[in-house]
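Table S2 (text version). Query chain:
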Amino acid sequence: MTDIKFFDDVEVDLVDHMGGDASVVHAARVSVVGRNHEEVLFNALKDTGLINYLMRKKHGSPFEHNALTFYIKAPIFVAREFMRHRIGWSYNEMSGRYTELPGEFYIPNPDRPLVNVGTSANPRFEAGDAYLVSETAWSLESSYGTAWEQYKYLLELGVGNEVARAVLPVGLMTQFYATCNARSLMSFLELRTNEPEATFPSNPQHEIELVARKMEAEFAGLFPVTYEKWNDNGRVAP
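Corresponding structure-token output:
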């Protein structure tokens, strides 16, 4: 089946953005300078302290006056975890109703931990041996191949896209736009990254953390002071 492709990673591209550390400062200072907000220039020393104060005291609204739009290509099960994040987020996803979906499927990288030695409430994964890695890849490839054959067969019969797609698994790669602000992104990263030194350590699924880390790198570049102070304050969203 030459029309099937397998991926062991996710794609995250920053496609648009508005604002940065200065927009956080402007939003905060308008409460005291009013219409003179345009005269407020970013002062690296003073305003680093202001951003730290806002973060520490959980004054969150100044971090909302900006936007980041990401293109994300990841397995469907990752996209469904994204949809749990609703406050401050907007989504548009590739539709299997209106278009024939590409035959692109996710198979974990051999280094991806496979065995849960924790609990469902507190998962902790360890690597599997070579046999387990091989069998996992074989099982996924086989099931993907069967599902894809049935999908194409139904389409050839004339079954509509919206019905034929029902045979496809959650390991199918999907594509979507996700737009957020810095505050909602920090909340997302707080839950979707594993940082032992964080105030509230989290245990995200490996695949969504792959996405989160790429988003975090873009965030760090666009909001260096905000990012630094978020880390200094335990990676807790304000």
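Notes on Table S2: The longest helix spans residues 130-157. The chain has one domain: 5-18+67-222.
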